[in-house]
Amino acid sequence: DVKVTQSSRYLVKRTGEKVFLECVQDMDHENMFWYRQDPGLGLRLIYFSYDVKMKEKGDIPEGYSVSREKKERFSLILESASTNQTSMYLCASSLGASGNTIYFGEGSWLTVV
Amino acid sequence: QKEVEQNSGPLSVPEGAIASLNCTYSDRGSQSFFWYRQYSGKSPELIMSIYSNGDKEDGRFTAQLNKASQYVSLLIRDSQPSDSATYLCAVIGNSGYALNFGKGTSLLVTP
Questions:
Q1: How far apart are CA B9 and CA B105, in angstroms?
Q2: Which residues contact A66 (CB under 8 A, 6 or more apart)?
């Protein structure tokens, strides 16, 4: 089975803090994604990566950055957390070819106070 | 902006009935279509994928795709209370990698 692991499940951070959300997948997938999910807005793509050190902006990249130094790991960084970044963050991965099934981690619940 | 539209519901069906969930999409170049189920507080889990026009069956679930009408649906036969969840329609465009999601339809199966 595909395993996408988000190490931090529940976080509470202060406004202005730098926040790291880590994601690891164990299926040698080329593609990795970060989404956020908010009530009434659905899932929205923040960033994705199709290869090590490669990244592409999604629909809502403002206020976020990403890092992919190793194939299995994709990190989401909030440079200066704000209250409007309180959300559930979902990491996902898929095999290299376009159109392949995307598998999700369990999610990270971030509250910024 | 490439849109994926779903009726938010809630859709309420009695136990044992067929639940029909519908989705339309705006990107005519879309090639890959998925249905995910999401329980409250949990992450989405894949139910089915469909790539070609027609029907695809997997157990109690049938996905239907009509690319000409830009329409994809999910039928759940013999609905169970455990099927109560939000169902997310998702689409990958031509040469794309990332999913574009609808906002989901809430399904309630009543005993």
A1: 5
A2: A34, A46, A47, A49, A55, A74, A75, A76, A77
Nearest residue to A52 via CA among A33, A69, A77: A69
CA distance A40 to chain B (A): 7
Q: Which two tokens stand for residue B51?
A: 């790539």
**A12-24 pLDDT per residue, tens:** 999 999 999 999 9
Mutation for testing the B interface, residue in A36, A102, A108 having most B CBs under 10 Å: A102
CA angle B66-B71-B77, nearest 5°? 90
In chain B, the percentage of residues whose pLDDT exceeds 90 is: 81
Any idea which of A4-8, B28-32, B51-55, B102-106 has the lowest mean pLDDT? B28-32
Chain A residues within an 8 Å CB radius of B29:
none
Residue B54 and residue B64 in contact, taking contact as beta carbons nearer than 8 Å? yes
